[in-house]
Amino acid sequence: MKNLLKLLFFTACIGLFTGCEKQDEIVAPDALLKKTTIVNHEAPGLDHERFVTMKETGLNIHYRIIGKGPIDMVFIPGWTNPHTVYSKQFDYFRDKARCIYIDLPGTGWSDAPSPATPIKPDATGPQYTMELMAEAMYTVIKKEGIHKFVGVGFSMGPKVLAMFERQNPGMMYKLIVIDGWLNPWPTDPEERTALIQNNNDTYNFMLTWDSNIKSVLVKNLIPDFLSGPDAEELKEWGSYFADFPTDIMANTGYYVRDEYVNSIVNWDYPKLCFFSSPLNEEKTNLADLVFPNNTIIIYEGGGHVIQWMFHDDMNMEIWNFVKDRPGKKY
């Protein structure tokens, strides 16, 4: 059992830290409810709830816009998370910025078709790549007419934002990282071969996960020792994970570990990085490499979802970081 827990935690760390054309038109939620995976839909203080269809794939992407202001902020959730992982940010920023919270493909109210296997060259069918996630993000941003924005990424979120930066350089001007990483691949051939095999083995292992194994993993990320109203809300929120589609979970987790996804990005603008545990010298050097021009703040003792457990302090830190927008308003 100890070995199983270690492997579960290792997998989680890698995977989690980790003009209106016809096809772009917004569709009514009622038309999509029967064919989407609904995860924690209830959340307070909504302004606008919208869907938009991706051109190439036809996937319907759900997102929420809350608030208005001179700054645009785009919030990208983590691995398997619906946008409600940012519930504790909804009300704080509503009178300060226009905030867009996106359900990435396969999560929340966005379409979630069953994927093909990623480890067979001849496989056909949907693949939950970070390229797909970034394209979904761009579809939403294009629809809302956003030209410049602050990117916010939790866990897997920075990997999606890194892919977006590669595809659309110059649109983000500040980045907020919440307990997430890029993990550049080794250059040694033997280490690379071992990593590829490990990724394949991890994918196959994840396909075997049942609700009991998923519940163990959740407790690594949202520990039982957390207490208080916020902690109880977070534990209830995290219960969605036990029933999350295993094939989508494994497919997304596989692509989270992709070499290109974890490669260095040329983004030199300011970054505010929050982490859930102190960084040793190796981790500090990695943060400086993958998130250059950073300010690092540590919040210990709250598990992985620190933007929930430390929302009072973190929201203020985020606002102090983003409130001085350079240049004119778009």
Automatic annotation (TrEMBL):
* GO MF annotations, alphabetized: hydrolase activity
Q: Which SUPFAM superfamilies does the entry mention? A: alpha/beta-Hydrolases
User: What name does the UniProt record give this protein?
Assistant: Alpha/beta hydrolase
Q: AB hydrolase-1 domain: from which residue to which, for each copy? A: 73-191
Which species?
Plebeiibacterium marinum
Q: Which UniProt keywords apply?
A: Hydrolase
Is Hydrolase set as a keyword in this record?
A: yes
Q: Which domain of life is it from?
A: Bacteria
Is Hydrolase among the key words of this record? yes
